[in-house]
Design a protein that fits this description.
Blueprint lengths: L12 H9 L12 E6 L3 E5 L4 E11 L19 E2 L3 H9 L4 E5 L2 H4 L9 E9 L2 E6 L3 E5 L4 E10 L21 H8 L4 E5 L2 H4 L9 E9 L14 H9 L12 E6 L3 E5 L4 E11 L19 E2 L3 H9 L4 E5 L2 H4 L9 E9 L2 E6 L3 E5 L5 E9 L21 H8 L4 E5 L2 H4 L9 E8 L1
Antiparallel strand pairs: 1-6, 2-5, 3-4, 3-6, 7-11, 8-10, 9-11, 12-17, 13-16, 14-15, 14-17, 18-22, 19-21, 20-22
Helix pairs in contact: 1-6
Length: 442
């Protein structure tokens, strides 16, 4: 049942993970989710008073024929399958961690996902009450928790206003460099962390501008036994624990861990279930793992994290029953030259459904009971056996379409989509592809 405040009752850890962590637009248990709809050409204004914005979902495009249609010819609102894939990232970068923000609903900001269609920007967001830490460029950020451990919501290195860290080179308010993933890998789950606010640490997003590092975070109280038990937590707390890409094991005890030394291959397997990667890091965060026979100089850097780790593992493994990924620099890039690394992955096995649609055909995803919640979607080819064809010539054609399929299908009883290059673009020219979607009915 979807009321103004969503009631999450009697749900297992896995179900809560699906509901809260897949970037689908659900209202939080606290009832604080807000909605903003802005017609093309106007500006969306988000505001949280004394709290901080956290964008849950966003789409610049058109998904119905009624919104922002007054005075427009029918041809400009007939396309109701229009979604800009940059919507969520753009709104998060512009607004997360701020008390208010204003973003223009125009093609120059989001790109034009459907030429000739009159679009609108739809945003759902929450107002959270975490802490904020500001560090001016050239100084060290010292983020600490007296009680509990750090959980980072959002981080930006750049400049989003002129008043913070005033300086003669504070000449722009549009210097955005989302460093959330990096700060989470450095700080989440720790009592304290120390990071230099500098170009050498984060690279320079706007040369000649005096910048600052802003981090919004909370101190959460958690238990760290060999298997983490999450008990008596509200929806908001579970959101913090499960959705911020920190590496926590689930409440259902089904989370698995894989540690693979550099040069070997990580093998993830779920039998009859489907893989969902919770956390991944290719690098080094301690001096003991994969250290046998290695000189101390190759083990001393314990702050080594490849920012592509989670995305790479999710793209290669999510929605599959098993996968094998080499723990090598050519796959993840080299986050710390000269350090002997390892790949650490936590993942769950979900008993969800899978729908395969061969290129050129229409996929019809339906739920007899409940509504659709997409876990993962890929348009390409990840094996040679599915949709056999003379042009099925590679098993490494990745095109993550999870956000697009969520915007099309989540919360609906059924949705229909054509598995074609015109719908998803062509990730590997000349290869016969298929659309695979793993989902459940909630």
């Amino acid at each position: 049942m979807f009321q103004s405040t969503m009631l999450v009752q009697k749900l297992s850890g896995i179900t809560l993970l699906l509901l809260l962590c897949q970037h689908a637009c659900f209202l939080s248990a606290s009832g604080n989710a807000k909605r903003s709809v802005t017609c093309e050409g106007d500006s969306a204004s988000l505001s949280c008073g004394s709290r901080f914005i956290n964008v849950l979902r966003a789409n610049y495009g058109r998904t119905d024929g009624r919104t922002c249609s007054a005075g427009k010819p029918p041809g400009q609102f007939s396309n109701v399958h229009c979604s800009s894939e940059t919507s969520l990232q753009t709104m998060a970068t512009q607004c997360n961690g701020k008390k208010s923000c204003s973003v223009q609903a125009v093609n120059s900001v989001f790109n034009d996902p459907c030429f000739g269609t009159y679009k609108y920007l739809e945003v759902s967001y929450e107002c959270l009450k975490p802490k904020q830490h500001i560090t001016c460029e050239g100084f060290r950020a010292d983020i600490t928790c007296g009680k509990g451990v750090i959980s980072v919501y959002y981080a930006n290195y750049g400049r989003r206003n002129l008043a913070t860290c005033p300086h003669k080179f504070a000449t722009s308010t549009h210097c955005n460099s989302d460093q959330t993933a990096r700060m989470r890998s450095r700080c989440n789950g720790k009592k304290s962390c120390h990071v230099q606010a500098s170009n050498s640490e984060f690279s320079d997003p706007c040369v000649g501008i005096y910048k600052y590092l802003e981090v919004t975070y909370s101190c959460i109280r958690v238990l760290f036994p060999s298997t983490m038990l999450v008990q008596k937590l509200s929806g908001v707390t579970l959101l913090l624990l499960l959705c911020q890409h920190a590496c926590f094991l689930s409440a259902c005890d089904d989370a698995k861990q894989s540690v693979t030394c550099e040069g070997d291959s990580a093998s993830l397997s779920c039998g009859s279930g489907f893989i969902i990667v919770l956390c991944a890091n290719y690098g080094r965060t301690d001096g003991e793992t994969c250290s046998a026979g290695k000189p101390p100089g190759q083990l001393s850097n314990v702050h080594c994290s490849s920012e592509t780790s989670l995305q790479t593992m999710a793209t290669r493994c999510n929605g599959r029953e098993s996968c094998s990924v080499p723990a090598v620099n050519s796959v993840f890039n080299d986050p710390c030259f000269g350090t002997y690394k390892y790949l650490d992955v936590a993942y769950e096995c979900l008993q969800s459904k899978q729908h395969i649609t061969c290129e050129g055909f229409r996929g019809d995803i339906t739920c007899e009971e409940g509504v659709i919640s997409v876990h993962y979607a890929n348009y390409g080819r990840r094996n040679l056996a599915t949709c056999p064809h003379e042009l099925a010539t590679t098993a490494h054609c990745y095109s993550n379409r999870t956000d697009r399929m969520r915007s099309r299908c989540n919360g609906k009883k059924s949705c229909h989509v054509l598995a074609s290059n015109s719908e998803f673009s062509d990730p590997c020219v000349g290869v016969y592809k298929y659309l695979e979607v793993t989902y459940c009915c909630v």
